[in-house]
Design a protein that fits this description.
Helix content: 40-55%
Largest sheet: 7 strands, parallel
Bound molecules: NADP nicotinamide-adenine-dinucleotide phosphate
Number of strands: 7
Strand order of the largest sheet: 3-2-1-4-5-6-7
Strand content: 5-15%
Length: about 250
């Protein structure tokens, strides 16, 4: 496969970071953003030095439309038109609905759903003009977007919105050869889930058919497949990668 420009949001940690490393290792040009400079970024950047010419990264809060536009423009002027968009930036702010602060509702919706919208819109504008069959959007959702989860009204609603966005954009962009799919991970071992106490982790593990939490790489393999020409007739799907947690 020829080298593509793959733009990944939330690329400093977790699933996004694993995607950055994996696409770069395959020879793709990779741009990625994160909300803040951190130890995670300091650690990651030297690992990418071997791909130096082909990597662009920077701060961009995905919940702010103007920051997304600036980052997207800089990424395209450095590495060329975006061929693949992976939206992995996401946060959780859990609490029962009766106690959920309005700012936690808004923060999660603005990051997980509006952030996905901002980048999808920019990518759509760039990709539709080209009608290239190798263009694709892979939106990172969650199983709770379809199945719900106690204490996650904000997060579940944001991911349900991402699923609807993937299906709708697949209809809008399909005629322009742009495929749009979502991946819906279950429990994945990243910083997002390290906040779980041991009892919660144990309980989660027991409810998973494969009896283990997923790894970021488990999710990235699916992202890579959906982004590739191997998936040339797959669009508008929300594909679970959860070890058999829900079915
Ligand atoms: P993670 O380890 O916490 O990493 C989250 C990444 O998103 C970080 O790079 C973070 O950057 C970035 N980010 C957060 N808010 C941002 C913002 N406003 N603007 C730009 N970047 C932002 O999370 P993860 O587990 O890899 O999760 C990645 C995606 O998978 C999320 O969409 C999540 O909802 C989804 N997911 C995860 C699981 C799981 O079990 N881990 C399950 C289902 C779905 P900073 O370091 O700068 O904040």
């Amino acid at each position: 496969m020829t080298a593509r420009h793959v733009l990944i949001t939330g690329g400093s940690r977790g699933i996004g970071r694993a995607a950055v490393e994996s696409f770069a290792a395959r020879g793709d040009r990779v741009s990625f953003c994160y909300r803040q400079a951190s130890n995670a970024v300091d650690e990651l950047v030297p690992r990418l030095q071997q791909y130096d010419q082909n990597v662009f990264h920077g701060r961009c809060d995905v919940s702010v439309a103007s920051e997304c536009q600036t980052f997207f423009r800089q990424a395209e002027s450095t590495l060329g038109p975006v061929d693949v968009l992976v939206t992995s930036a996401g946060i959780v702010r859990d609490s029962p609905i009766a106690l959920m602060p309005v700012e936690d509702w808004e923060g999660v919706i603005q990051t997980n759903l509006s952030g996905t919208f901002h980048f999808s819109r920019l990518a759509a504008f760039s990709m539709m003009k080209r009608r290239d069959t190798s263009t694709a959007l892979v939106l990172v959702s969650s199983i709770v977007g379809s199945h719900g989860n106690r204490g996650q009204a904000n997060y579940s609603a944001s991911k349900g919105g991402v699923n609807a966005l993937a299906r709708t954009l697949s209809k809008e962009l399909g005629p322009y050869n742009v495929r749009v799919n979502a991946v819906a991970p279950g429990f994945i071992d990243t910083e997002m889930t390290t906040e779980f106490d041991e009892a919660t982790r144990q309980k989660a593990q027991e409810s998973i058919s494969l009896r283990r939490l997923g790894t970021a790489q488990d999710v990235v393999r699916l992202i890579e497949f959906l982004a590739s020409d191997e998936a040339s007739y797959i669009t508008g799907q929300v594909v679970q990668v959860d070890g058999g947690l829900v079915m």
